[in-house]
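ok new one. same drill as before - structure tokens go in, u give me an amino acid for every spot. 191 of them this time. try not to just spam alanines like last time pls lmao
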């Protein structure tokens, strides 16, 4: 069984970021339903075909449209499930380890292409570290927030600004900010 987060882990991360535990829990819930692993103890992964298209310069768009495609707001292939592991493996067979850069991982859905920012030698190394447990995923989230200058947005509960920076400018279309606020309010009542 993979190590899951404890209340003490959340408190440590919140102290490092200067924010409330409820906000961190809300981000985890929004990104991955609050857990870093699927059934069978597989790391939560979401393969991003539009990133694969960008990093492979569209080389596989025609031959593998379920793997390489333009960004779609409601991509039918992007479910964050075991099928994403299959898609990641197919992409790896086509393009090698660059495929690991084209997915987001763990309870905070951090993109593989952020590996160097987070201190890993490769996206594959990031995946291996995240596979150790949710504590490693939380530590990477804290580093990411600090290095991207997003701690103030969390601390000040500017959740739409955080959503735009963390999840991209399409976050408004995906209701990310309002969803995050509702989840924050829910977790705040539990803390």
């Amino acid at each position: 069984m993979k190590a899951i987060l404890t209340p003490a882990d959340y408190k440590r991360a919140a102290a490092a970021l200067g924010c409330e535990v409820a906000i961190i829990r809300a981000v985890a819930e929004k990104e991955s339903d609050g857990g870093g692993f699927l059934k069978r103890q597989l790391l939560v992964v979401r393969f991003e075909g539009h990133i694969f298209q960008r990093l492979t310069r569209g080389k596989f768009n025609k031959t593998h449209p379920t793997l390489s495609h333009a960004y779609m707001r409601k991509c039918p292939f992007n479910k964050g499930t075991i099928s994403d592991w299959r898609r990641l493996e197919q992409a790896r067979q086509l393009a090698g380890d660059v495929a690991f850069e084209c997915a987001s991982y763990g309870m905070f859905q951090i993109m593989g292409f952020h590996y160097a920012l987070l201190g890993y030698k490769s996206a594959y190394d990031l995946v291996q570290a995240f596979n150790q447990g949710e504590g490693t995923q939380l530590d990477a989230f804290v580093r990411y927030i600090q290095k991207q200058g997003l701690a103030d947005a969390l601390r000040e509960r500017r959740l739409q600004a955080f959503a735009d920076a963390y999840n991209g400018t399409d976050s408004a279309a995906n209701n990310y900010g309002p969803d995050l606020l509702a989840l924050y309010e829910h977790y705040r009542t539990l803390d």
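Confidence is low (pLDDT under 50) at residues 75-79. and btw The chain has two domains: 1-36+124-191, 45-105.
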